[in-house]
């Protein structure tokens, strides 16, 4: 027995279980390719960790460069246009350019996952639209375009120019939410990856790129050059093995079951052997007038939602100030709302039939988030008024309503204002998420920039948003000085 | 005149005030005195219905105080608490004129400041910017602003240091004399009660033990507790 342990120990020392970490981006195809990489690496004897759906290109790419992952699936178009920012390179030229960064690139896996536009089949048939050039005659169509595509160098703007499209209703929307919106007839047109399983699931019509606008996005693996040769060889076994129908089939299966490992395994079981494709992109920063427009939208989101939150929150706080089951219910509910992740709240609201992907939906989400600090501070401020002051107000013969308006609320004003300020500052930050459902604001460049690995575009949204938050804070400090009477400001006792 | 008939207040098993009959004559100054928790402040609050009585009735100047007329009654009664009970977000002037403004009635600030000897320059200060004695004077002005028939005071001088307290006692005595209003005040200081009041009501455990003047308490105590209570007070005023 003892020898067995010794032997095992020896084995561990001699052949240390080499660990390889694989990353993937946050969409189905990347998950599946990550699982396939895991499969072949495990076959080659490695211990593999797959960090699923780490984020957009920028995040996964930086994780690879930083060494927290060893490999991830990428697309040639993205490598050339976004990571290296040198469009039109051949694969070998890319490898040469990646080498100084300590990164290697595998051969093409096969499929080309590029961009197309899709419509509901019924709408497309009714209007007789089969190719992108047909869209020039239909400026009335409602488009819901991913933020990435809106900003890409080969994206919406050049596409519109090349095909003479003149659509007026164009919103920026998250990719998956966009499919839901298309299906729900809230938009008529969106961009897609040619290997998206949703195309088949929702029976959508892919419009032909009749002027050959979109470039090729061939799937590859990027890996760190420090990765063992054996692991590189293992990944290379997938080169040229995955064609488009195969990838679409795998995406569909994974989309349905949400079990990416199983989808990947089905490939090895069926031993698919062809090519396929994927998509990714490049970005173009935009001008100052656009920033002003986004700041305007952002302020509108914050102002409208905050105003509503004040109108609803203060009365709720007044009710909640009197302890009892109703108070617990109000404070409990607003508290629970605050704990829902903001993205999840948006997704939940989008699913509500009469809301969908609208400005109002973003307003409601922001309003819900703003409630807690206002309700809680109103309740705390009112409950903290000393009993002798309450008694004095009553003894004077002020009616209950007048007591509230003339005495209690003014006394609680500093606390209530502090709550509103907290809500406003949180709101400025949270409002960046409104871009995910097409409500605009400073989140638009942030979301686009993240998808495009373009820090400049991210900063175009992040910097103004941060400045805005500081300005809001200053504005409320000034407001507090203006409206809170000297007698209530702490540390100013006379005599 | 204030007349209490069978007024009772209990908190669970604790009796705050046993059924009590008590009359305060018009123009009389009455001191309610007794150890902490004896029910003297409760009695004052019950008069204004700041707490609901369990039983009994309160009649002020011929009007029974009910849920329906309580705001009207309160406006005809001035109420002063320890430290003035001033609203910190309002200046002295705004505190004094609060009810006048609310009801659209004018307030004679000049006579009030003269009466309580408060400097007009202090009217635009906030309570935090006034001394304890000044706050008490502003509280008194606020209580008197609508020229009430009756003045109720709950330990009005309780928070003041002895010198300020003494000077305010002198001023209060003069004010009571000049106004001739029905006054009921709560104190725990027998000296103050004897100095300001023409009648003293001693309470213990929610019951009236004895009422009358200081001499009555000294000469014919109703029970040993009365003497005990007098002896517990440090004495100079009694000689």
Word description of this protein:
Chain A has 495 residues and is mainly alpha-helical. Chain A is 57% helix and 11% strand. Chain A contains 21 helices and ten strands. The model of chain A is unreliable at 7-15, 272-286 and 491-495 (pLDDT under 50). Chain B is α/β, with parallel strands linked by helices and 239 residues long. In chain B, 36% of the residues lie in helices and 26% in strands. Chain B is built from nine helices and ten strands. The radius of gyration of chain B is 18 Å and the shape is globular. The chains are: A mainly alpha (495), B alpha/beta (239).
Which structural traits does this protein have?
heterodimer, A: 495 residues, mainly alpha, three-stranded antiparallel sheet, 21 helices, 10 strands, disordered C terminus, B: 239 residues, alpha/beta, six-stranded mixed sheet, four-stranded antiparallel sheet, globular
What is the compact description of this entry?
The complex is a heterodimer of chains A (495) and B (239). Chain A has 495 residues and is mainly alpha-helical.
Q: What's the layout of helices and strands?
A:
The complex is a heterodimer of chains A (495) and B (239).
Chain A (H helix, E strand, L loop, with lengths): L1 H13 L4 E7 L2 H16 L3 E9 L1 H10 L4 E5 H8 L7 H8 L4 E3 L9 E6 H7 L14 E4 L1 H5 L4 H8 L5 E4 L2 H9 L5 E5 L4 H4 L2 E4 L11 E6 L4 H8 L7 H14 L2 H11 L17 H34 L3 H15 L2 H10 L7 H25 L3 H9 L4 H31 L12 H10 L2 H29 L12
Parallel strand pairs in A: 1-2, 6-7
Antiparallel strand pairs in A: 3-10, 4-10, 5-8, 5-9
Chain B lengths: L1 E10 L2 E11 L4 E5 L6 H8 L7 E6 L2 E2 L5 H6 L1 E5 L10 H12 L5 H8 L15 H13 L5 E5 L7 H18 L2 E6 L2 H7 L2 E6 L2 E6 L1 H6 L4 H9 L7
Helix pairs in contact in B: 3-5, 4-5
